[in-house]
Specification:
Number of domains: 2
Helix content: 40-55%
Shape: globular
CATH topology of the largest domain: Glutathione S-transferase Yfyf (Class Pi), Chain A, domain 2
Strand order of the largest sheet: 4-3-1-2-5
CATH architecture of the largest domain: Up-down Bundle
């Protein structure tokens, strides 16, 4: 394969966003291939066992989990010290990826879960954000962003924009500011550029 790693990604997917953020922070240049989730290319389906983004293909491995891709990138280069407090970070991320994401999906996509109450699930998701609010100072582990912040923020953003006015009315001033700082950062805008769907034999798109 190409000597550069290849990242199969989808711009709006929060799992793919956090993988791109870690790669951006690490300063690793790779080939980005934008996947259209409703029309996945055969090459992507061949590479990814999970058939979901993100998927990283290196010369000697295929990483199909976003957290694994983050840690891969930061183990190569971690200029912002995001791997500090790694064990505590992973505990918070595990709750985000489990109960919070489950409740988020059932709040955002009620038609997919007709037997679930979206309002009850919004309450369940809010319980996690109460925990986040109490943890922030102004980031999850002090003054600076780390792995947990970067892994969780894309999902908080997704939840917030289900009903942004409602989100802003909640008693989460630190969470609201944390999210706003993230959304307006150069780092975030740099990883959210739009790319056309990748097809085989397209010219290489380098990221970041």
């Amino acid at each position: 394969m190409n000597s550069k790693p290849v990242l199969y990604s989808f711009r709006r997917c929060p799992y793919a966003i956090r993988a791109r953020l870690a790669i951006y922070s690490a300063g690793i240049e790779l080939e980005l291939r934008e996947v259209l989730l409703r029309d996945k290319t055969p090459k992507f389906l061949e590479v990814s066992k999970s058939k979901t983004v993100p998927c990283l293909q290196t010369n000697d491995a295929i990483l199909d989990e976003s957290l694994d891709i983050m840690i891969w990138a930061l183990n190569i280069n971690d200029p912002n010290n995001w791997l500090k407090e790694i064990n505590k970070s992973l505990e918070l991320v595990e709750t985000c990826d489990g109960p919070f994401k489950k409740a988020l999906d059932r709040t955002k996509y009620p038609s997919r879960y007709p037997d679930e109450d979206p309002i009850e699930n919004r309450v369940l998701a809010s319980n996690y954000l109460d925990l986040i609010e109490n943890q922030l100072n102004p980031c999850l582990f002090g003054q600076d962003l780390n792995l947990a912040d970067i892994a969780i923020l894309p999902f908080v953003r997704q939840f917030a924009h289900i009903d942004f006015n409602w989100f802003l009315s909640q008693p989460w001033p630190k969470t609201i500011q944390w999210l706003e700082s993230f959304k307006t950062s150069q780092m975030f805008s740099s990883v959210m550029k739009k790319y056309p769907k990748w097809e085989e034999n397209d010219p290489i798109t380098l990221f970041p």
